[in-house]
Amino acid sequence: MTKQLFHILVFIVPIIALLPWSPESRRIPFLGKQSLVQKPPNNLVADNYTYEIRYYEQTLDHFSFDDLPNFSQRYLINTDHWAGPSRMGPIFLYCGNEGDIEWFAANSGFVWELAPRFGAMVIFPEHRYYGESMPYGSREEAYKNASTLARLTAEQALADYAVLITDLKRNLSAQASPVILFGGSYGGMLAAWMRLKYPHIAIGALAASAPILQFEDIVPLETFYNIVSNDFRRESTSCFDTIKKSWDVITSVGRKVNGLDQLTKTFHLCGKLKSTDDLYNWLDSAYSFLAMVDYPYQSEFLMPLPAYPIKEVCKAIDNYADGTNVLDRIFKGVSVYYNYTGTVDCFDLDDDPHGMSGWDWQACTEMVMPMSSDKNSSMFPEWDFNYTSYAEECLNEFGVTPRPTWITTEFGGHDYKSVLKTFGSNIIFSNGLLDPWSGGSVLANVSDSVVALVTEKGAHHLDLRAARDDDPDWLVAQRASEVQLIKGWLDDYYTTKKAAFNM
């Protein structure tokens, strides 16, 4: 069997078996995005967070002097609570992820809710090559080939944010206004890296669920899938065992005459299953995402889901233990993820509504996150990351060879504790241990100002989501700690500025 690794918003079937998936990826269209409420063209409201949409004429290549066309970078801005330049009102900038920036704005309520407390301006710049921020005038042209995609990198994206915020502050005569960075998942990685690369631009960063160590062999390659597996095991050992057993059952049924037809019927697929690999990948996707969003309340972050969805999946699997075969039980369980609302009649495993994903390119160039699965500790089948096959797929798809050591060369990662302790400051790494991406993040304090906030029952950047009346106490406490740390950064900044002014 092959192992599928997933991508945000879009995915490519030919190379999906080998490419590492981004922290925010999805197998099927995101249904919750429809909750964005459209207002007049240049003024939108996402979950009661009002912002103006603007565009910035951005440089395509910040690191050369080639005569290249600029592109329009979309960004969202709100100044309703900003204290203004005369009072050095802070600027909260969310580092846009690999997708439409309005979706991330709608799912980052913590940033919006902090703005009035600190008198802050809020800015959500969109990541180049995603959403509407397309070089060369269109997505089709931007994604045409390796030459047009060449400038889709984390380095270029960070430079976009640095140039945008510097120019904006200059135009507002707000050069003295401090900038705090926010980001979740890949956006959290960007926030941490930007704080390290551009310390003169931003005074601090909240990097939520940011797997900056998920490269090369910094963490064991089995870490991600072991965490997913442990999330299911902690709910029910019988559920864990059933899932572990199911892979061999799928293989056995698939080898029979008309076996693929039988699997198609069992899992209510829209079209005939072409291979068992497609079914493996579909199930793998559901289990992994469930671990990411095992939130303590109902949500629609990736899919409409109940509170503690893994518990509900295991309940569905275990409730049919008597007299029901393994595959029917697995279908009952996975339906909690793919069809919790009960509105889906059949599942299309080949659904690819968006076309090529920018993350596929990033994964084939610099964002190489190797993962494996161990048969003894994981509920997934055993498999090993094979760089040779990985590189061949990238060469076939894009005509490029990955650079698996580039991220650690550019941003660091090895010996990160001593490096961050010596050269880093004012970074919060927040993680929930239910989130499989936490295994590739910083989970212990590095210094007094490079701090890890870890919650045992937290999931994928839950702390960045909007506050709710039913938030558990540990989540309220985590956010309170983040607020205090951010307040400390700002207090230190203003004290330093005041002292310099008096001099």
List the keywords.
11% strand; 503 residues; Rossmann fold; alpha/beta; Four Helix Bundle (Hemerythrin (Met), subunit A); single chain
Compose a concise summary of this entry:
Belongs to the peptidase S28 family. This protein is an alpha/beta fold.
Secondary structure elements and their pairing?
Blueprint lengths: L42 E4 L2 E10 L12 E8 L12 E4 L6 H6 L2 H10 L2 E5 L13 H4 L3 H4 L4 H18 L7 E6 L1 H12 L6 E5 L14 H13 L1 H19 L3 H8 L9 H17 L16 H11 L6 H13 L19 H8 L21 H12 L7 H6 L4 H8 L3 E6 L17 E6 L17 H30 L1
Parallel strand pairs: 4-5, 4-6, 6-7, 7-8, 8-9
Antiparallel strand pairs: 1-2, 2-3, 3-5
Helix pairs in contact: 7-8, 7-10, 8-9, 8-11, 8-12, 11-12
What is the β-strand count? 9
Q: And the CATH topology of the largest domain?
A: Rossmann fold
CATH class of the largest domain: Alpha Beta
Number of separate domains: 2
- What can be said about the biggest beta sheet? 9 strands, mixed
Q: Return the average pLDDT rounded to an integer.
A: 89
Helix and strand element order: EEEEHHEHHHEHEHHHHHHHHHHEEH
Number of helices: 17
Q: Name the CATH homologous superfamily of the largest domain.
A: Alpha/Beta hydrolase fold, catalytic domain
Instruction: State the strand order across the main sheet.
Output: 1-2-3-5-4-6-7-8-9
Task: Examine the secondary-structure arrangement and name the CATH architecture of the largest domain.
Answer: 3-Layer(aba) Sandwich
Quote the distance from N terminus to C terminus: 69 Å
Question: Which bin fits the share of residues in helices?
Answer: 25-40%
Class of secondary structure makeup: alpha/beta
Low-confidence stretches: 1-21, 25-45, 352-356
User: Strand fraction band?
Assistant: 5-15%
Q: Given the C-alpha coordinates, what overall shape results?
A: globular
Rg of Cα set:
23 Å
